[in-house]
UniProtKB/TrEMBL annotation:
Gene3D superfamilies (UniProt xref): Vaccinia Virus protein VP39
Organism: Candidatus Sulfurimonas marisnigri
Keyword terms of this UniProt record: S-adenosyl-L-methionine, Transferase
GN (gene name): cmoA
Highest taxon listed in the record's lineage: Bacteria
GO terms, molecular function: carboxyl- or carbamoyltransferase activity; S-adenosyl-L-methionine binding
Protein name from the UniProt record: Carboxy-S-adenosyl-L-methionine synthase
Length: 235
């Protein structure tokens, strides 16, 4: 289904409800620049770290597209676990897994409180930015503590620049991208208002500093387009 969520006046802040879940895959393709490419990088590094007995967690797994793609390429007996707190998203994910025969475990869970097993890979695609800054670092510490030595945390985030002019231009560049995907100025404005104070992005430097402060030995960007970036943090 095509994303037309913001063609009408908004009445609430953005949330991952049934209306959003129904069009989420289309929303991602048209709202996140080079989403397919960043996902392929995530799949590549995830698969390199998975072996028999490995566990991989996808935090905020939404419709499980990433885990389904990884399950198709998996050549070992690893456990793929998708965690999300949206029933609507999980319903869509279960339908896709069933239709495609994907061996993926899906759970309705609070990723801040979840009792993680020792894992080789954690992934978070545009999820950290929706977690309040006060507790975001605690989650990253929990992820680091739950990873095996040399395990990886791959996370994609919208990022900001602390240079006012550059930050303004990055946003304008992104809005031009959205217009090219068929979104109107009205839809862009509506979504921006709905996400205000819900999505709180960090800069590239702040994300790397957070990862290192939370127990990762190394963190760097492996893909970036304007104000969207994919990071890999190594335990």
């Amino acid at each position: 289904m095509n994303d037309k969520v913001f063609t009408k006046p908004i009445k609430k802040q953005f949330e991952f409800d049934e209306e959003v879940a129904a069009v989420f895959d289309d929303m991602l393709k048209r709202s996140v620049p080079f989403y397919k490419e960043s996902q392929k990088i995530t799949e590549f590094f995830s698969l390199k770290h998975l072996e028999d007995g490995s566990i991989m967690y996808d935090l905020g797994s939404s419709t499980a597209s990433l885990l389904i793609n990884i399950s198709k390429q998996l050549k070992c007996k690893a456990t793929l676990v998708g965690l999300d707190n949206s029933d609507a998203m999980l319903e869509q994910a279960r339908k896709k897994c069933l239709a495609l025969g994907a061996n993926v475990e899906l759970e309705n869970a609070d990723i801040l409180e979840y009792d993680y097993k020792e894992a080789d890979v954690f992934v978070s695609n545009y999820t950290l930015q929706f977690i309040r800054p006060l507790v975001r670092e605690e989650l990253v510490k929990k992820i680091a503590a739950s990873l095996k030595k040399d395990g990886i945390f791959i996370f994609s985030e919208k990022v900001i620049s602390h240079h006012p002019k550059l930050n303004k231009d990055l946003i304008e560049c992104y809005y031009d991208f959205k217009k090219e995907q068929g979104y109107s100025e009205y839809e862009i404005m509506q979504k921006r208002e709905a996400l205000e104070n819900v999505l709180v992005p960090y800069s590239e430097e702040e994300n790397i500093k957070m990862a290192k402060n939370c127990g990762f030995s190394h963190c760097e960007v492996v893909f970036r387009w304007a104000n969207f970036a994919t990071f890999i943090a190594i335990k």
